[in-house]
Amino acid sequence: MGVFPVRAGRRRSPIVALAPAALLALIAVTPARAADATQWLTRVAQAARQYNYIGTIVYQRGNRVETSRIIHLNQDGKEFEKLVSLDGPAREVVRGQGEVRFFYPDAKLVRVEPRTFRNVFPSLSPEQQKSLKEYYNFKVVPGERVGGIAADSVVFEPKDGLRYGHRFWSDATTGLLLKARMVNERGDVIEQFAFTDIQVNAKVDKAMVEPSWPVVPSDWTVKETSAGDVAPHATGWVVTRVPPGFTKIMEGYRKLRGRQEPVVHLVFSDGLVAVSVFIEPFPAAAVPLGMQSARGGLNIYSLKLEDSVVTIMGEAPGATIRQIGNSLARR
Amino acid sequence: MNENISRLMDGELDPGELDNVCAGLRRPDAMATWTCYHVIGETLRGTPTLAASPAQRFAVRLAAEPTVLAPRPRPVSNAATWAFAAAATVAAITVVGWTAMSVLGDPPTAVAKAGEATAISASRVRPSAVSPDFLLAHQEYSPAAAIQGVGPYLRAVGTQVSDDPAERP
């Protein structure tokens, strides 16, 4: 267990340490604020969809920092969003109805993703809600400030080494997420983003969220990504040593483009993060195997099992990902 | 061994395994792996303190006669298994590079530099990156990703020009 930033507070005198708790007790009676983790998550996810806002976001991963401009519009229940990189090449991501387009002008490339889940908060199963309570210390600390506005700081402190620590700051009034940080067991920041300025309820019109390239220039490449359709079904694959706190929330076959055979997809979640297991027939070509030292929160581990290749990925420490991979068996 | 080296670098190695793995690093091929992982990591992070020379040395050593780097003779050891191990090492290294690129999106220049480091004998293996389709399918289920809304896009804005080396020109 590492040094989670909020723990510093515990070393203060008991009276100082009690002050946030007293404030928290006061907050608990305010209906606008979330009383538990599930409520808070649901409220923040809803706020991200609901409000119109314009802001500047700083994103940090390791020692890299990037700044982007974000414009979000909810027009009659339909969401539109435009994110433009302010550093380096003017790359942008435009989310509209039906799809998301990623523009890379430096590479003359557009990547198109079908509009799927973004901002649609998955409803948590009773097991997931139980895991949230049992495996994270959930705390709300009001009275902080992000991007010039009053914010609640929300902490998900892991109780074991099988998950990362998460800290979020949400707008005290609207619930909009203003800052998010993920830390490892040593307390090092793995990844974080924060608004440096934001206008909530800004006046946004449709033209502001249109792509800079409404028509893809003829010399650009267009690439399509698709998560395919998933059919829930028993697959015969089982994880014999599921890390504590994780429960299986999905099992089925996924049809992906360019693959004849459907891919087996299992998903495990502890209520805050998910770990996916993909199983496909071992291809003729060489494939990467082993732990891939991903920086920035998402860990990926691949292994060969019988005549299959297994890929495990999730926003969890390597040990968690590895345990799932190494205890996979065919029933 | 390569996985243990990777875990050692990430600080994820069980303390009980430390002595064993450190002892294993005395082997030239393990040391080469260690060096190469660091070169790639640093290049991707844009802090190439080891510069190109260790990578070049590694390239030269890889290209050299297998017997030069062969581990102590063991009953099953022969040139073929060594070659396989070397290819596996290169595959693993290449994967680190490509994955960091495809998942986390390092700038093309850094990736190009990593490409130089990983191009060593890369023609021997044909790596495939983790499918972006998998990444997309996975994100659907992550509550933490869902509340961040814009989070996954932030990773993409500073990201790579290509997410699948097989499709690269």
Structural commentary:
The complex is a heterodimer of chains A (331) and B (169). Chain A contains four helices and 21 strands. Chain A has helices spanning 14-28, 37-50, 126-135, 318-326; strands at 53-61, 64-75, 78-85, 92-95, 99-104, 109-114, 136-146, 149-158, 165-171, 177-183, 189-200, 221-224, 229-232, 237-239, 247-255, 263-269, 274-281, 290-292, 299-305, 308-314, 328-330. Chain A has a twelve-stranded mixed sheet with strand order 7-8-9-10-11-1-2-3-4-5-6-12. In chain A, strands 13-15-16-17-20-19-18 form a seven-stranded antiparallel sheet, covered by helices on one side. Chain B is an all-alpha fold and 169 residues long. Chain B has one domain (2-69, 76-167). Chain B has helices at 2-9, 15-24, 28-45, 53-63, 66-69, 79-104, 108-118, 132-139, 143-148, 151-157. The radius of gyration of chain B is 18 Å and the shape is elongated. In chain B, 46% of the residues are buried. Classes of the chains: A mainly beta (331), B mainly alpha (169). The interface between A and B is large, with 92 and 68 residues.
Task: Write a short abstract of this structure.
The complex is a heterodimer of chains A (331) and B (169). By secondary structure, chain A is mainly β.
Taking all Cα atoms into account, the compactness measure Rg of chain B is 18 Å
* Biggest chain pair interface: A-B, 92 and 68 residues
User: Hey, roughly how much beta strand do the residues of chain A contain?
Assistant: 35-45%
Please count the helical segments of chain A: 4
Kindly provide the radius of gyration of chain A, computed on alpha-carbon positions and rounded to a whole number of angstroms.
21 Å
Secondary-structure element series of chain A: HHEEEEEEHEEEEEEEEEEEEEEHE
- Oligomeric status of the shown chains? heterodimer
Query: What fraction, in percent, of the residue positions of chain B are helical?
Result: 55-70%
